[in-house]
Amino acid sequence: MPKKPTLRDHLWILGSSLAVAAVSCASPCQNEILSEVQSPNGLLKVIVFQRDCGATTGFFTEVSILDQSEDLPNETGNVFTVDDDHGKATSGQGRGPRVLVRWLSNNEIEISSDPNARVFLKEISYKSVMIRHISLPAKGA
To answer: What pTM, to 2 d.p., does this model score?
Structure first.
């Protein structure tokens, strides 16, 4: 006669099922770092990266500000996200639109991007850093 499952058995099965579900729902997106620039005082860094979420989406160029010791997480940028709006913007170092960054001081950066890029996120500050946005020369200009 088979043993009747206990509450512990049911909880183990539930936990295993949740673990499998979490793994199968992992993000198909991947980040590729295009450039990384330290702040003048070395405490922060700004990273420009390409985010690719598979064949059914275009390439995004994104920007994150991180503490110097942090690794880039497999997430969207925390201060700036653009795509090429179906080829309207000039491609950059990756396959997404061209984006350049530079530190103006320990607490201010400048993000330059193609004016034809489609903007999804455009912060003007993040933590203690002010963010200036300027346009690069347009495609064909």
So the answer is: 0.77
Contact 21, 15 (CB under 8 A): no
Q: How far is CA 25 from CA 22, 51, 60, 62, in A?
A: 5, 18, 21, 23
Sheet of strand 108-113, all strands in order from the earlier edge strand to the far edge: 99-105, 108-113, 129-135, 125-126
- 59 to each of 41, 85, 117, how far by Cα in Å? 32, 10, 12
Q: What is the mean pLDDT of each run of 10 residues along the chain (141 residues)?
A: 60 46 60 95 97 75 97 95 89 86 98 94 96 83 55
Q: Report the C-alpha gap between 34 and 113 in whole angstroms.
A: 14
Angle at 81 between CA 40 and CA 52, to 5 degrees: 110
Task: Give the C-alpha separation, 59 to 87, whole Å.
Answer: 11
pLDDT value, residue 140? 55
- Residue ranges per domain, the chain? 30-135
